[in-house]
């Protein structure tokens, strides 16, 4: 298995006029709820649901996988959710989100806050991995300080995961990456990691 790290292709998203959002009534939302929304690996509670976003500006585009800028959590399309469920049913977390235009109109497309539900223990080899800067926004996957060396016996059989020692990095199998590429989902970039 060839593991990949994936992130938002920030340049492509910028050129495509990526949508940016504000969290509705952010000033009135409890700090613990905001923390759970912003942390890409912390599950939300049922009481946290009813998340509403609003476009910051007019005529902006949504992608299949994108950051929402105000949070480390990612916003994904129904297409992305369906593909994840095809590979690993009921393992990952998807929270439906209401998105409104700047004028307040509800968008018909369904999008979700996405949190990777598989956190592996001791999955990468610290002696061979140059973690360097582990960034919340990984816009430079060509940075050699982001190379991970994975233990095959730990990641084998998984398609999407993070390591319990990391805050927000997402990793996937070559099979999942190939399926995303085949579906022509936009604004994703990939970097092959190593495996032992």
Rg: 17 Å
Shape: globular
The amount of helix comes to: 10-25%
> What is the H-and-E element order?
EHEHEEEHEEEEHEEHEE
Describe the fold and architecture.
The protein has 196 residues and is an alpha+beta fold. 19% of the residues lie in helices and 26% in strands. It contains five helices and 13 strands. It has helices at residues 10-15, 31-38, 78-87, 152-155, 174-182, and strands at residues 4-8, 21-23, 51-55, 65-67, 74-77, 93-100, 111-115, 119-120, 149-150, 160-163, 170-172, 188-192, 194-195. The protein has a six-stranded mixed beta sheet with strand order 2-3-6-7-5-4. It has a five-stranded mixed beta sheet with strand order 8-10-11-1-12. Strands 9-13 form a two-stranded parallel sheet. A hairpin with a 6-residue loop joins strand 10 (160-163) and strand 11. The protein is globular and about 50 Å long. The termini are close together.
């Amino acid at each position: 298995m060839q593991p990949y790290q994936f992130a938002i292709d920030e340049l492509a998203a910028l050129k495509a006029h990526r949508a940016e959002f504000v969290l509705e009534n952010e000033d009135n939302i409890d700090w613990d709820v905001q923390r759970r929304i912003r942390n890409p690996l912390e599950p939300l509670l049922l009481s946290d649901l009813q998340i509403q976003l609003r476009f910051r500006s007019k005529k902006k585009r949504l992608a299949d996988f994108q950051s929402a800028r105000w949070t480390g959590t990612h916003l994904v399309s129904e297409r992305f959710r369906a593909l994840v469920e095809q590979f690993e049913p009921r393992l990952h977390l998807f929270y439906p989100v209401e998105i409104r235009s700047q004028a307040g109109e509800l968008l018909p497309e369904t999008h979700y806050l996405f949190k990777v539900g598989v956190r592996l223990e001791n999955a990468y080899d610290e002696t061979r991995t140059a973690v360097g800067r582990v960034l919340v926004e990984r816009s430079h996957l060509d940075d050699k300080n982001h190379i991970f060396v994975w233990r095959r016996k730990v990641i084998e059989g998984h398609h999407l995961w993070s390591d319990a020692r990391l805050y927000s990095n997402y990793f996937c199998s070559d099979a999942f990456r190939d399926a995303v590429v085949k579906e022509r989902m936009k604004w994703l970039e990939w970097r092959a990691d190593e495996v032992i």
